[in-house]
Amino acid sequence: MLDLSGKNALVTGIANNRSIAWGIAQQLHKAGANLGVTYLPDDRGRFEKKVAELVEPLNPSLFLPCDVQNDDQIRSTFDAIRDKWGRLDILIHCLAFANKDDLSGDFSNTTRAGFTQALEISTYSLVQLAGAAKPLMTEGGSIVTLTYLGGVKVIPNYNVMGIAKSGLEMSVRYLASEMGPANIRVNAISAGPIRTLASSAVGGILDMIHHVEEVAPLRRTVTQTEVGNAASFLCSDLASGITGQVLYVDAGYEIMGM
C-alpha cells in the first residue's frame, strides 16, 4: 500500500551507514521514490567519496554538495532540483550539530558561539530548506525532520541540543501552519537513541541506550530501518491528513514515567 513511485525526494544528512538519514533513504528507495542526496563538502572531499559509495546502490539522480551555513550552496541545490526534476515532493531534514564540549558538563557553560552554531545548523536549517523547497512543491509535498526526546525533557549531557530540538519542533508547527494551504505537510520523527556519528558526541550515549533497552515497553531501542519506515509513511498518501506532528519512534520509551 505504501507507494512513492514517481515522487522526487531530497535526503540530507547522510554521513555513513549508521546515519538515520541512510535508513530513511533506503526505505524511500524501496518504496519507489526517485532520490536526490546531499553531502557536506570539505576541503579533502572525504564526505563526498564516502557518501557517494554508500548511496550508489540507491542510484540517486542528484548528488549535491550542501553546507546549510552557505546560502549559495542552498540556492544551488534547489536550482539543480528545479533544472533536473522540475518539482520536489519530499524533503528529509536530518541535520544537527553541536560542539562536543557543549554536550557534556554544565549547560550554563555553553559558549555563545556554540549556542549560535548549534541552533543555526540544527534548527534554522529546517526553516531555510523548507523555504527553498516550498516553491518547488507545486503538487503538494511532505517535509520530515528528526528530533529527540531531549527537546521536551531534560536528558543528561544533551544540553544545547535540547534547546535546538525544542526550537526545531516548534518550527515544524509554524511551517505546517504556513504551508498547509499549499498541501505541504511538515512533521517530525522523535527517534529513540541510536548510535550514530552525531549521537556519539553526546556524553554517556551508550548508558542512555542501555537504559532505554531496560525501561522501554518493547525492551529495546529502535533501528534506522524502523525510523525509515515511519518517514516513508509520513511521506506517503497514507499520512495525507497528518501535519505539524511529532511522531515518537522510540519503542515506547516516551510514555514511561520511570
Integer tally of domains:
1
The geometry reads as: globular
pLDDT below 50 for ≥5 consecutive residues: which ranges?
none
- E-strand count: 7
Q: What is the H/E string?
A: EHEHEHEHEHEHHE
CATH topology call = Rossmann fold
Structural class: alpha/beta
Counted by DSSP, the helix tally is 7
Largest sheet: 7 strands, parallel
- CATH superfamily, by name, is NAD(P)-binding Rossmann-like Domain
Report what the structure shows.
- The structure is a single chain.
- This protein has a seven-stranded parallel beta sheet, sandwiched between helices.
- 47% of the residues are buried.
- It has a single domain, classed as NAD(P)-binding Rossmann-like Domain (Rossmann fold).
- The longest helix has 22 residues, at 112-133.
- The chain has helices spanning 20-30, 46-55, 71-84, 112-133, 160-179, 205-215, 224-235; strands at residues 8-11, 34-39, 62-65, 90-93, 141-147, 184-191, 246-249.
- Helix 1 (20-30) crosses helix 7 (224-235) and helix 4 runs parallel beside helix 5 (160-179).
- By secondary structure, the protein is an alpha/beta fold.
- The radius of gyration is 17 Å and the shape is globular.
- It has seven helices and seven strands, in the order βαβαβαβαβαβααβ.
